[in-house]
Every structure is written in C-alpha cells, then in structure tokens.
Write a structure and sequence with these properties.
It is built from 21 helices and twelve strands. The chain is of the alpha/beta class and about 425 residues long. It folds into two domains: about 180 residues, D-Maltodextrin-Binding Protein, domain 2, CATH 3.40.190; about 210 residues, Periplasmic binding protein-like II (D-Maltodextrin-Binding Protein, domain 2, 3-Layer(aba) Sandwich). The longest helix has 30 residues. The protein is about 50% helix and about 15% strand. Helix 2 runs antiparallel to helix 17. The strands form three sheets. Strands 1, 2, 3, 6, 11 and 12 form a six-stranded mixed beta sheet that branches. The protein has a four-stranded mixed beta sheet with strand order 8-9-7-10.
C-alpha cells in the first residue's frame, strides 16, 4: 500500500507539474501575442516564399507574415476572386493584405483601406505610371501594384528551326507578324503539330485574346462605344478567333475547354509551335510535371496584330490591397513597402518572371546588362494596353466570356454572341440603375 506521505508527495508533484505547464503555456502565449501576425492572401510563387522568409527573419519577434496560398493548380482566377469576395463580405476575418487582379480593383475598393495617406508623392513617383493607373477608384488610391505581365507569343525555337527557312521564320516572328501573315505561315509549313494554342474556356483569359484583337483595330474602342459590341471591329475580333479553329484549322478544338494551365500542358505535351501566354509562363509551372527539356526551347515574341492595325497586348498582373477590416494596417503597409523595394522587385523578376513596377529598372543599363532578356521586355511593354477600367467590368466580362465561348464552340453565330452579350450587359446596367 502507498503511505500517506507518498500520496501527498505524488499530489505535490502533480501540482508542481501543473503549475509548470501553466507557466510554460502562459509564457508561450505572451511571447506569441507579442508577435503581430499579418495574413497575406496571394498565389505564393517562389519569389513570394523567398521574400516572406526574408522579411520574417528581419522582423523576428515583432512581425510575422503568414501566407494564404491560392495555387494555380487549385484555383482559377475566377474562383480566387469569388473566394476573396466571400471572405471580405464577411468582414475579411483572417486577411490583412490581399492581391487582386488589376481588373478587380473597382470591385474590391469597398473593402480596401484608402492608401494615399500611407504613401508619399516621392514613393508614388517611383512606380511605373502604367502600373499605377489601375490602382485608383473614384480618384482615390486604393491599391498599389505588385507586379505586371502582358500577353506574349511563345514559340518552340527547336521545332521552327527544323522547317525550311526556319531562321527567317523566327526572325519574322521576333520582329512582329500580322495575323494575316501568321495564317499564311501555317499553310506554308503544313505541320501536323498544333500550330497555335490560346485558352478559350468561359473565363477572363479568353476575353484577353478577344480584347487584343479588338484593340489592335481600335485602341480607344471602349472610350467610343463602351460595352456595345454591335460594331465591325468586335465582329472581326471574335470571328477571327472562331475561324482559327473552324476555318483556318490553326488551333485545335480542345482549346474550348482550356484555361491557362491545361492549354500550356497541351502545348508542351503535343509539341505545339505557338501559344498565347504571359511572360511568366516559363517560371510559373516549375513545380509542375511538364517537360523541362522542351520548355528550355520556349522563346517569347510580340503577339501578332491585324494588318493596318496596331501592335497591342493586354496588360495583366496583380495589385495589393489592405483590408479595411484589418487591425494591423501599419504592419501591413510596412510589409507592402518592403515588397515594393528595389530588392524585392528584382527578386520577383529573377524568380517568377514578373515585370518590376519600379521605373528605374526600365532605364537602368546595369539592370539590363545583368538580365539581358529585360531588353526585350522594355520593347514589349510599349505595346501594353489596359482593359477598360469599370466598376462592373468583372460582371460584364463574365457575360462576354459566356456568349463568346458559345460562338467559339459553334453553338451560336458570332453575330448572335455579340448581340446577346451587348443586350445582357445593357440589361445589367438598367438593373444597377434601378437600385
């Protein structure tokens, strides 16, 4: 039997252990609570991870950035938008900083902290004006740019070199080729390989291709006509995309189901010659199962344009917003300023292929010497053009992609698709006015 003394000793030991545990967790809790945690929602690339780790080491014991990842393979751009919107409608619990596609700024402005008071005029003047354009809503700065990309034409250099006059073909592509010449090229080389891939599913990426063909003809189209597509330029743009598949046979029918990742996978697997993409494609999918031996032959060139038209490519990228519900705004702003530093912007370009948003990189000869590919980017960005900045753009774009996908699938005619999109957008406008 256990003696009374042993019993009391055992009880005392339990009490001491309990007190130790309470003190340990109290101290841990106090230590934990002294660290401000910032929750940052974005697609976390290699550059993001590197910079977040670096910042957390710099701010150890004070601030910790906790990433909320939206990986490419799990979230389409549209899905990511809806998840963010739902979260912020619920007062954005758990999100302090969030990245938005540059066309979402108007929609998300109501949940964003106004930023003018946090950034001096000097800080704003460091930023590329083209990048800063999409960051305002009703004249107020509600976002800051994180990175930029634009539509480009990728080609397989190794395959093209095998054709007769392959080097001459590559030179034509690099210097800019019209859509008319591009179609002729397909007939000339008569290849069985998929010739031109572009994502044509019911989503924003498809609309980017449409916009490029539309604005190549008339860069000020939306200033003149708004979202009225009962115009010859709109018909020519959509009809050309439809004809790529059904008339000219330069694009396989499979693209009707493709967003970016499936289109890129199909292109690589089937040894496609050309694909519409973003300049970060060759770094975006490094963790994917694609064939790196083929990808090393991918080269970039300007997108084709219509004869008598203008060379344009849609500007894309991501802006940063601070949730107006956040109680850590000062810490959030400090982290954003770190991401806008020269060091961070160079890291984004080096690791993820995203264009810097700091002006100096575009005329800094030392930077171009360090990264020779940037010479091409300085030329390409001259063709970059914004999609229309409109509070309801995402709603209208969804209508457009729905009907335009029906046209490219052959379910309705191009004229019907354009008419239906125009009428549906007008109907939406009338409903919004009533409320």
């Amino acid at each position: 039997m256990i003696s009374v003394k042993q019993k009391w000793g055992f009880v005392l030991l339990l009490v001491l252990v309990l007190v130790y545990v309470i003190i340990f967790y109290f101290q841990k809790s106090q230590s934990h609570n002294s660290i401000v945690e910032i929750y940052f929602a974005d697609r976390i690339t290699a550059a993001h991870r590197f910079l977040i780790d670096e910042y957390n080491k710099m701010m150890k014991g004070k601030v910790k950035v906790v990433p909320i990842d939206f990986p490419h393979f799990d979230f389409s751009t549209n899905e990511r938008k809806e998840v963010l919107a739902r979260s912020l409608r619920g007062r954005g619990d758990g999100i302090d900083i969030f990245a938005v596609d540059i066309i979402w700024v108007q929609r998300f402005a109501k949940w964003s902290e106004p930023l003018d008071k946090y950034f001096s005029q000097e800080e704003k003047e460091r930023i590329l004006p083209l990048a800063l354009e999409s960051c305002y809503s009703n004249g107020e700065l509600v976002a800051v740019p994180l990175n930029r990309v634009q539509g480009v034409l990728y080609y397989r250099e190794d395959i093209l070199k095998k054709f007769k006059d392959g080097d001459k073909i590559i030179e034509r592509i690099k210097n800019g080729i019209t859509w008319e010449e591009f179609i002729e090229l397909k007939n000339k080389i008569n290849t069985k390989n998929p010739f031109y891939i572009f994502p044509a599913a019911d989503y924003e990426g498809f609309i980017c291709s449409f916009m490029e063909l539309l604005l190549s003809q008339k860069p000020d189209y939306f200033y003149q006509y708004g979202f009225n597509f009962d115009k010859p330029e709109a018909e020519k743009a959509l009809q050309t995309l439809v004809d790529f598949i059904h008339k000219y046979k330069i694009t396989p029918k499979e693209v009707i189901k493709f967003t970016e990742i499936p289109s890129y996978a199909y292109f690589v697997k089937n040894d496609g010659l050309f694909i519409h993409g973003w300049p970060s494609y060759d770094r975006d999918f490094k963790e994917s199962p694609f064939d790196s031996t083929k990808e090393k032959y991918l080269k970039k060139a300007p997108l084709p344009y219509f004869k008598n038209g203008t060379q344009v490519s849609i500007l894309g990228g991501w802006n940063l917003m601070v949730s107006k519900f956040s109680d850590k705004k000062e810490e959030a702003i400090n982290f954003i300023k770190f991401l806008l530093s020269d060091h961070a912007q160079e890291t984004f370009y080096k690791l993820s292929g995203h264009y810097p948003i700091v002006k100096k990189f575009y005329y800094d000869t030392a930077f171009v010497k360090k990264y020779p590919d940037f010479q091409q980017i300085r030329m390409l960005i001259k063709t970059a053009i914004h999609r229309p900045a409109h509070q309801e753009y995402t709603r209208y774009s969804k209508i457009m992609s729905y009907y335009f996908e029906q046209a490219i699938s052959g379910k309705i005619s191009v004229k019907e698709a354009l008419m239906n999109a125009t009428n549906s957008i007008q109907y939406e406008k009338n409903i919004i006015k009533e409320f």
